[in-house]
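=== Structure Prediction Worksheet ===
Name of assembly: unnamed complex
Input type: mixed (protein and possibly other molecules)
Chain count: two
Listed entries:
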Amino acid sequence: MTLLESLQKTFQPSHPKTSSMVVVGTMAFDSIETPFGKSDNIIGGAATYISLAASYFIKNIRLVSVIGGDFPKEQISLMNHRGIHTDGVQVKENEKSFFWKGSYHLDMNTRDTLVTELNVLATFDPIFPESYQECEFLMLGNLTPTIQKSVIERLRTRPKLIVLDTMNFWIEHTPNELAQVLKMIDVLTINDAEARELSGEYSLVKAAKNILERGPKYLIIKKGEHGALLFHENNVFFAPALPLEEVFDPTGAGDAFAGGFVGYLAQTNDISYDNMKRAIIYGSTMASFCVEKFGTERLINITQEDIEERVQDFVDLVQFDIALVD
Amino acid sequence: MTLLESLQKTFQPSHPKTSSMVVVGTMAFDSIETPFGKSDNIIGGAATYISLAASYFIKNIRLVSVIGGDFPKEQISLMNHRGIHTDGVQVKENEKSFFWKGSYHLDMNTRDTLVTELNVLATFDPIFPESYQECEFLMLGNLTPTIQKSVIERLRTRPKLIVLDTMNFWIEHTPNELAQVLKMIDVLTINDAEARELSGEYSLVKAAKNILERGPKYLIIKKGEHGALLFHENNVFFAPALPLEEVFDPTGAGDAFAGGFVGYLAQTNDISYDNMKRAIIYGSTMASFCVEKFGTERLINITQEDIEERVQDFVDLVQFDIALVD
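=== Predicted Assembly ===
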């Protein structure tokens, strides 16, 4: 069996009935400035990026979010067409969707938030349709920890895996609420600066030990162009980001990563540590596509072959033959 | 064969007669301040770190450097004891050795140079003993490009592999001299900021393409705690740095990396791309030891078992089983 054949094998769902996955998070308009250009009022939001990336892996994605009357119906249709259910997306016809405007520096690892308009998000109370109750994989995109917690509590059966993303704003402003929800989840994804802030430790190894004592069994620290680390008990796994000629727009890369990660776990229905390593490679793959164009443009236009080739690029990037011996 | 047995096999010289290696560079006194402490007038210098790291791989290391009468004789004895020949180390009894004082920031990836006293280095004209002429592997530590070039010209037979390290100072102040020596070498090692400065490209992929057109067939971009990239033709290989609980003192890490890299290549006498990948893992291994203590303290106290265990840590860190299929 060639490596590519093995990848193809890996990539296909191993179970005829794929798992169900619920994604909770924002759907938004973004205005983005990067050193390479600007784009006004394009589709964005954590749940948008997460579900689009995951849709390359499974077809039973159930979205929980809120949008205003200004959110384009065609975007909803596009997502439905990709197997993303939107029964749990509330439409507040007379209000405006969440809006974010940001500007990236040359290194693309740092950005300034210029405008945040909560709009519909200010009063968001997630609706959980009955059809969503059978939820094996739950991905909680970045949102206020109170809402993330309420979602978990509204599920009658605890999902097989709960993954949560958060950010510095909640670490600083709602530490107690965040601490509560951290006790209820399996995997936490945050970036390196946030891991340092949450733990009070500069060393990421020490930060990880500290955070793993707060509840999550797995911790993924995202380092942007410097890759991602997975911590679990005393194990650590590292996946680089793919070195790209151009990073066009980093917006959504972390969410595309999370979508690929959880999507792959749901597709394979295997939450072992070894499968999480593979899932991180698939997450990194989806992030590497995401940054190639503005907004979600690249994420809605990927082929199965693109994904297989890109995963092969990751294999070539890190593989050395000491690792190939039994 | 277990993985560890395979590592042990890899680690032993595959040829009874190991290759010869010449190291050219500074031997110095350093005063270092890090967030964890300070250390005054300890032994440092690129050639010191390079040759100590390489001495774990081969025993025919020939050093070319210059020191003052103040340089401790015991340090020379220690190096001789580790198989490092010092016939090419000039001693200027009435002068002082090169001195550097620097201070590291909390992130340990940036530092300020507080004092540089060239002393003996100001008039350094490398001596090349006849016994050094048979040189298969030449490692040119960071020095003025004119001296690096003169060393290559003084060798009657071109070495099998010439590796050169440089820094921002030479990129800015002697670009023409640097351009000349770049045409004469095989492998260039520089850090990410220097790669960007030398090429004028922000993207490291574009920077690498640019630099590979200037002479070197291989380019290693060192990213400190974020690992190292190897570029060759259209190939790219990435090795992470090992996530450590504490980075005590990063001084010499890049040189320890270079020493492990060239030392392993010389030991195995194999300069193929695949072996360079392995050599980078050994280089990263030596760098990971170097930063654990101040100065060269850790580098003079490593066992074969330490190295094997540490390489295994690197395997565990990046290995995912997609890469293990034929």
